[in-house]
Design a protein that fits this description.
41% helix, 18% strand, AcCoA_carboxyl_beta, ligase activity, alpha/beta, eight-stranded mixed sheet, 2-enoyl-CoA Hydratase, Chain A, domain 1, 17 strands, 532 residues
Length: 532
């Protein structure tokens, strides 16, 4: 039998303390998500409604098939910056007429839906997801274009938005634009480059230059409707493929466009899957509040995979990394999960072999992070930790099966790379509120700086200021601690969202379904040179 036998004591003090710590972090997370949901605030939401318009998430809800989930991506974008949490843009994956689509919607309650630097990063990330997974793109457009005060950070890289639309189309991935309001200046190219365009009567405004700019440039007197109204584009310019009488009609027409796309998944849907043997609610009490305390990742695996069934690979070798095979919502997965935090040579070699096997079998990989990095020290350096760690990173870098990553606890140093961190292009990466990620732990980093400063003073024959050293260490620890927290990292789009641990199975299931829209094949012998 390969069903995991849980030893989690849900009545014990450790479990209770872990659960309380996680619930406190989730409460903080909910408060930040509420900021994104609030958009520009009550004043601007009221103004938007007074104009008879739907909010961005209401538009998405009407677009989606009834009673189907919406996997929102990067909801905390711009957290910790001068811009509104959410970055004036909603992105995510949802089902429209039975087709999984990548949906973006400008939030016009935030500075008229204008794009800021974080909106741009969020939109580009959404485009990457659509291209990698062959998901049709639906843009619900209402934006005044670039947020002009920050144009220096938007204009040059912002051209990638329009490049991506054309590349998606060239790859046979449908693009649909529904214009609810302004889509002006550079934003006019979003409908201009989309495969299908729907505009709303007396609402849509699509032009390269509005009446004031036209007056300044040419002296011509004009108005919004004659320059770029929906009626003009439907009857005269031909830019509008469909003419809608109101927002609901536009969304109805968008659904009909998707219904006629003939867009098919590369793989059939999996059969019924047996749920885990253990309650997902118990995931709240597994990760300790202090990440220096180890936990068994098999307790997590037992609560997310089908029937809690996990065929472990090399269970007696490299025991700080659990590897094995399972299914999740019927989809086969290979899982790599950090057990005791540190990665040694054995774990690195085990991981490299396991990744090769997954590629031979065309099985996606799931990385569950809780690592402080690769082991250091003379014994381990002499034992080849560098070349063995490089072997694992080589395998991750050149693997061609889809990768999914979840940061549960620590994800420090090169261990973050070896476990397929953001720079290694996982199809999706999510974090739990308990996660932390940085070049190393706060205490270790502050200690290293202290040792270097102490050695420098000694080399110069100068006395060392212990009081200043203590102040420096405290400052550095506080800085690194704050910069390693999941909301900080999510605000910079280093993940696709911070999720409730109880939702992990559902989120991963939605991701696995989406990635099976595109065909994939594992690498067959095409890895880089493995140093032995």
């Amino acid at each position: 039998m390969t069903v995991i036998s849980s030893t989690l004591d849900t009545n014990g003090p450790d479990y209770t303390a872990n659960r309380e710590a996680m619930l406190a972090k989730l409460a903080e997370l909910d408060a930040e998500h509420a900021k994104a949901l609030a958009g520009g605030g009550e004043k601007y939401v009221a103004r938007h409604r007074k104009r008879g318009k739907l909010l961005a998430r209401e538009r998405i809800e009407l677009l989606l098939d009834p009673d189907t989930p919406f996997l929102e991506l990067s909801p905390l974008a711009a957290w910790g910056s001068d811009y509104t949490v959410g970055a004036s843009l909603v992105t995510g994956i949802g089902v429209v007429e039975g087709v999984e689509c990548l949906i973006t919607a400008n939030d016009p309650t935030v500075r008229g839906g204008a794009s800021n630097p974080w909106s741009l990063k969020k939109a580009l990330r959404a485009n990457d997801i659509a291209l990698a997974n062959r998901l049709p793109c639906i843009s619900l457009v209402e934006s005044g274009g670039a947020d002009l005060p920050s144009q220096k950070e938007i204009f040059i890289p912002g051209g990638a938005i329009f490049r991506d639309i054309t590349r998606l189309s060239a790859a046979g991935i449908p693009t649909v634009a529904v214009v609810f309001g302004n889509s002006t200046a550079g934003g006019a190219y979003i409908p201009g480059m989309s495969d299908h365009v729907i505009m709303i009567k007396e609402r849509a405004k699509v032009f390269l230059g509005g009446p004031p700019l036209v007056k300044m440039a040419t002296g011509e007197e004009s108005d919004d409707e004659s320059l770029g109204g929906a009626d003009m584009h439907a009857r005269v310019s031909g830019l509008a493929d469909y003419f809608a009488v109101d927002e609901r009609d536009a969304l109805r027409q968008a659904r009909r466009v998707v219904a006629r796309l003939n867009h098919r998944k590369a793989y059939p849907e999996p059969g019924p899957a047996e749920p885990p043997k253990y309650d997902a609610d118990e995931l709240l009490g597994i990760v300790p509040g202090d990440l220096k305390v180890p936990f068994d990742p098999r307790e997590v695996i037992a609560r997310i995979v089908d029937a809690s069934d996990f065929d472990e690979f090399k269970p007696l070798y490299g025991t700080s990394l659990a590897t094995g095979w399972a299914t999740l919502h019927g989809y086969p997965v290979g899982i790599l999960a950090n057990a005791q935090g540190v990665l040694f040579s054995a774990e690195s070699q085990k991981a490299a072999q396991f990744i090769q096997l997954a590629n031979q079998r065309d099985i996606p990989l799931l990385f569950l992070h809780n690592t402080t990095g690769y082991m250091v020290g003379s014994q381990y350096e002499q034992g080849g930790i560098i070349k063995h760690g490089a072997m694992m990173i080589n395998a991750v870098s050149n693997s061609r099966v889809p990768h999914l990553s979840v940061l549960m606890g620590a994800s420090y140093g090169a261990g973050h790379y070896g476990m397929c961190g953001r720079a290694y292009d996982p199809r999706f990466l999510f974090a739990w509120p308990s996660a932390k990620s940085a070049v190393m732990g706060p205490q270790q980093l502050a200690g290293v700086l202290s040792i270097v400063a102490r050695q420098s003073a000694a080399a110069k024959g100068q006395p060392y200021d212990e009081e200043a050293d203590a102040a420096l260490r405290a400052m550095v620890e506080q800085q690194i601690e704050s910069e390693s927290l999941p909301m900080f990292l999510s605000g910079r789009l280093y993940d696709d969202g911070v999720i409730d641990p109880r939702d992990t199975r559902t989120v991963l299931g939605l991701c696995l379904s989406a990635l099976h829209t595109a065909p994939y094949e594992g690498v067959r012998g095409g890895f880089g040179v493995f140093r032995m």
